[in-house]
Amino acid sequence: MKYDVLIKNLNSRNINAYYCKDTKETNKKILDMIPNKTTVGIGNSKTLKTMNISKKLLDRGNIVYDKTLAKDKDEIIQLKKKSLLTDWYITGTNAVSMQGHLVNIDHSGNRVAAMIYGPDKVIVVIGKNKIVESLEAAKDRARNHAASLNAKRAGYNPPCLKVGKCVDCKSKERVCFNHVVIEGQYDHERMTVLIVDEELGF
After folding, report:
1. Which CATH class is domain 2-132+178-196?
2. Phi-psi label, residue 164: left if phi above 0, alpha if psi -120 to 50, beta otherwise
């Protein structure tokens, strides 16, 4: 089973990983992992929106910093900053290689910044559609598939939306300013990847 291979390869990079059969099991796993009353930052993720994890955490008493719940642009900025110093951070990813590389493209960089450093613990939720065979395929997926769909979701209109692939534009509408490959973790207790046996996000 390919999930077993991926989990083994992530473990070899000091990244914990678990299989979840669906989003219901994934939500339960997250709620079991994160203690009540702790602070939780949320990366802007279609996957996490589908799971409605912010509301579940808020309802049980966690302090949640999710920029998509902000009232205005000023609050968005404040929530993004606060999420960098949380006890826990939850996010999706644009692609993961079978060798265990996590590949992401970010607009402002707050999501990848939190994945790399800041929050004490990080949970990355990955739908089966995000898994590809190689690092190059992961980079290609992030650049030529996820970036344009996330741009559209955020209300931007870069050239890649029209042509269907990255053209390395200098457009003010582009969202792919930060390309990050996470190859592992120094602290083997910090990052956990939850692999969901469903297609989730872009």
Report:
1. alpha beta
2. left
